[in-house]
């Protein structure tokens, strides 16, 4: 851990559950001061409090919350050096039945909000010459699956945003990268496994092995800490030369 890392401030969206929580914990262990943004729910406040994170209640479907979240982070922790756009959720339906308002919300939370947070945080992220934006995309930023149109559109878009922001930020020492995980054992995925087991009449273990991991070379779900370890490297000063990168951590899913 370097002295510079000790003083850095990170904001992790969706930081009270799953991948976001693991990244927040890892950054804290790396010596950063960490704010977690999440929906204003008692459980989220409790998790943040127990772990010693600054809690920023916000709904990323609301534009004004994105601006306020940056302002509150800077006023609570004195700056903002590392932004992790991680919050997200899934909705599964064929396009012809996909609820239009759900589409709008998903695109806002997973694509528009990362754009707004980058835009509002830009002056802070570029201040110290070692700023970092890490966008948590997905294998579904590269490839599609049926019934996830909004999710896949948002994740493909997030990769485009990553590359564009990287080109605009390079002169200011700010790097912008995307991490594309395969399936990670989190509440989001455990919900999907349970749903698919019900609808397909399979056991949860069969859904994991035969449905979810079928295209993967390594037939094992990732853990949130695996993603956090990669995020820790990307956030570190050592990764200064990596920008606009789309980093697959996908069990070999997209190798074929
Ligand atoms: N779990 C996986 O297999 C996997 C794989 C690839 C990518 N991802 C991506 O990783 C990210 C985290 O997923 P996870 O599996 O940890 O999910 P999770 O459900 O455990 O956590 C997501 C967090 O986002 C928050 N969130 C949702 N909507 C929000 C909103 N409107 N405003 C503020 N916060 C909101 C939730 O409250 C929750 O805390 C997501 O972007 C997801 O698409 C997950």
The CATH topology of the largest domain comes to Rossmann fold
User: Residue-averaged pLDDT, rounded?
Assistant: 95
Give the class from helix and strand content and strand pairing. Answer: alpha/beta
The counted number of beta strands is: 7
CA-based gyration radius: 18 Å
Number of domains: 2
Structural summary, described in words:
With 256 residues, this protein is α/β, with parallel strands linked by helices. The chain folds into two domains: 3-183 and 223-249, Rossmann fold, CATH 3.40.50.720; 185-221, no CATH class. It contains nine helices and seven strands. It has a seven-stranded parallel sheet with strand order 3-2-1-4-5-6-7, with helices on both faces. The longest helix has 26 residues, at 100-125. The chain is globular. The relative contact order is 0.14. Residues 1-5 have low confidence and may be disordered. Residues 13-14, 16-20, 38-39, 58-61, 86-89, 109, 136, 138, 181, 183-184, 186-189 line the site of nicotinamide-adenine-dinucleotide.
Looking at this protein, list some descriptive labels.
256 residues; Rossmann fold; 2 domains; seven-stranded parallel β-sheet; 9 helices; 7 strands; 48% helix; binds nicotinamide-adenine-dinucleotide; D-beta-hydroxybutyrate dehydrogenase; NAD(P)-bd_dom_sf; SDR_fam; 3-OHbutyrate_DH
Provide a brief overview of the structure.
This protein has 256 residues and is α/β, with parallel strands linked by helices.
Any chance you could write out the topology, listing elements then pairs?
Layout: H1 3-7, E1 9-13, H2 18-29, E2 33-38, H3 42-51, E3 54-57, H4 63-77, E4 82-85, H5 100-125, E5 132-136, H6 149-169, E6 175-181, H7 187-200, H8 204-212, H9 224-235, E7 246-249
Parallel strand pairs: 1-2, 1-4, 2-3, 4-5, 5-6, 6-7
Nicotinamide-adenine-dinucleotide binds next to α2 and α7.
């Amino acid at each position: 851990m370097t002295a510079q890392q000790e003083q850095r401030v990170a904001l992790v969206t969706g930081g009270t559950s799953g991948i976001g929580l693991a990244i927040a914990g890892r950054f804290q262990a790396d010596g950063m001061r960490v704010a977690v943004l999440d929906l204003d729910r008692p459980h989220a406040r409790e998790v943040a409090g127990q772990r010693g994170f600054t809690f920023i209640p916000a709904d990323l479907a609301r534009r004004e919350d994105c601006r306020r979240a940056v302002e509150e982070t800077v006023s609570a922790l004195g700056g903002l050096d590392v932004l992790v756009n991680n919050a997200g959720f899934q909705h599964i339906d064929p396009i012809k039945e996909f609820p239009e308002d759900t589409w709008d919300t998903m695109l806002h939370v997973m694509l528009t909000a990362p754009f707004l947070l980058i835009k509002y945080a830009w002056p802070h992220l570029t201040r110290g010459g070692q700023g970092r934006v890490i966008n948590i995309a997905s294998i579904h930023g590269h490839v599609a699956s049926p019934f996830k149109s909004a999710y896949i559109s948002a994740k493909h878009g997030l990769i485009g945003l990553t590359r564009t922001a990287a080109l605009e930020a390079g002169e200011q020492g700010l790097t912008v990268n995307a991490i594309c995980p395969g399936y990670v054992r989190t509440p989001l995925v455990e919900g999907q496994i349970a749903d698919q087991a019900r609808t397909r009449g399979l056991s949860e273990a069969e859904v994991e092995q035969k449905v979810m991991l079928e295209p993967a070379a390594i037939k094992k779900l990732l853990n949130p800490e695996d993603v956090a370890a990669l995020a820790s490297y990307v956030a570190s000063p050592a990764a200064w030369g990596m920008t606009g990168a789309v980093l697959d951590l996908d069990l070999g899913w997209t190798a074929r």
